[in-house]
Amino acid sequence: MSTKYKATTTDEAYFITITVVGWIDIFTRLNQKNVLINALKYCQENKGLEIYAYCIMSSDIHLLCKGTNGFILSDIIRDFKKFTSKKIIQTIIDEPESRREWMLEYFQKVCEHLKKNQTYKVWQNGYHAEHIYSNKFIKQKIDYIHNNPVKDKIISLPEDYYFSSARNYSGFENDLDIVVLSLF
């Protein structure tokens, strides 16, 4: 298995993107965004995840992060994806969701060709980890993360998007605490 875009070391920061299969817009619903926020909090508290920037978009999540205290980021992300996959499906089944039938059917169909026996597949394979190597690269990736909802015309200013660390960097309330970097 290739390690080109995997975070296989500990205590090194990476820019990663985790994407839903078929780019399905699951995270247009508040309950699904909260699934991700709560899972990230758990990983911070119990799995050594240190987050410097993040943004939850409609079909993906961007993170600038690293594993600490001996935890390897690839293991953290594997566990995060496994847990959130199950929780996302359970949320689709249990809570009001007008797209329930076709979404569940799609996530089942994606599994048909897999060797591994599983009922649903929510996340694309991998997470395209890019190793952070300079302050310039950190700034570039944080700007990209924070301006993603602006680029998609969801909001006008990065700090107005509630599910982004742009709020943390601007001193606004946010549900997810992060490590704010002072590189600017």
UniProtKB/TrEMBL annotation:
SUPFAM superfamilies: Transposase IS200-like (SSF143422)
Superkingdom of the source species: Bacteria
Database matches in InterPro entries: RAYT_transposase, Transposase_17, Transposase_17_sf
GO biological-process terms attached to the record: DNA transposition
Domain called Transposase IS200-like: residue spans: 9-148
Pfam families xref list: Y1_Tnp
GO MF annotation terms: sequence-specific DNA binding; transposase activity
PANTHER family reported in the protein's UniProt record: REP-ASSOCIATED TYROSINE TRANSPOSASE
Name recorded for this polypeptide: Transposase
The species this protein was found in: Flavobacterium potami
